[in-house]
Amino acid sequence: MVCITGCKKAHNITFILEPFKYKDTTIMTIETLNARRLLCPLPVIRTQDKVKQLNVGDRLEVICTDPGVMQDIPAWCRINGHKVIEATAGNHEYILLIEVGSS
Amino acid sequence: MSKQRKAIALISGGLDSMLAAKTIMEQGVHVEGINFFTGFCVEGHTHAIREKDKAKPKRNNSLWVAEQLGMKLHIVDVIEEYKNVLINPKHGYGAHMNPCLDCKIFMVNKAKQWIVENDFDFIITGEVIGQRPMSQRKATMPIVAKESGADDLLLRPLCAKNLPATLPEREGWVDREKLHDITGRSRKPQIAMAEQFGFDDYSQPAGGCCFLTDKSYSAKLVDLWKSQGHKEYQLDDVMLLKVGRHIRPQPNFKLIVAREEGEGRFLQGYKNEFISMISLSHRGPLALIDGTPSAEDLYLAAQITARFGQGREAEQVDINVTMIDGSERTLQVKPIKDEDMPKAWYV
Question: Which CATH number fits domain A21-99: 3.30.110.40, 3.30.2090.10, 3.40.50.300, 3.30.70.120?
């Protein structure tokens, strides 16, 4: 197994994934939002509504098929104080991982 | 120290609302934006669907404006509530199916509800007297304020000096002297103001961002209503009006024929809800059949589907027909000739 820390070494150990503790008090959750087939701005609206239910530090993975989300969701995050951790595209799908900010 | 006042600005993504919000921000008021999605603000949808448009990424102008101004933007889904505005507009339609005055009243009313719920003080719009023939006239300004329930909490910074003072002006929350007196359809004052603020990139869509001001789109909507015998609609109905060629050979059914690969992929997502057709023997587009076609109608639909593929000149084209229940069969048809397709069939 290649180390998930990115050190590129093989370790003979098993990683046990536990909920990540954010700021020692809040347990970070990762939720997924299926926004496939929705056209902008609906993926942004669904993201906005979902983020309202989450806490600071939580992460939301949004899966879309409208390429416009690659502009619109990062723009929405910038003006509302959230952070896009990762944005990937492939096979006609666009996936954004958002970390909820404090705004 | 006086309390900092808070305003919500209706942001369409165009220049006027951008300037209106900026004018009030310059006076030290905390301004946030609000944008309503009716289902017809489909500026980006064709772009999202069609393959040929994908090389030039398209921004959402309301988000872009908010970012330029450094303010938050709340995008609100009003699809369901908007149906009543479109179906029963008290003040009627404009040149096409655009109920602009009712729409403005509706949106200002929603903004009024929002400021009450969020403890904001007043509402800003980018309206200019004489800018639009239906919704932005001197006579309609008080109608919007009154019927929306916003009354004098509604401030139009771009033409405020031509209107009676509103509460924010009378109370000194904003300085009336620093507001504007723009009238008419000329864009010169707005362009000059944009230069003053340092905005060199902004959107000026001719009919706003609303497809209901589009003649072709409105014709498809009227056809939909006429064919189903009522004006109710779902979001998917109005989305599909923007995609493909719409061909109605008979009152009881129409075809939606993809014009290119991106549209075909989009229509593919609706295959479980419609009868669909595609050529097996030649390359050709996906077609959805909407309505209640008879067996004879399906044969005609297959001939039309064949006409839009590479087999259009062939003696025979094999068309796969998939029914809504998933059952399939193949129809062998001779493609219909152009001269046998009256222009009136094209919606």
Answer: 3.30.110.40
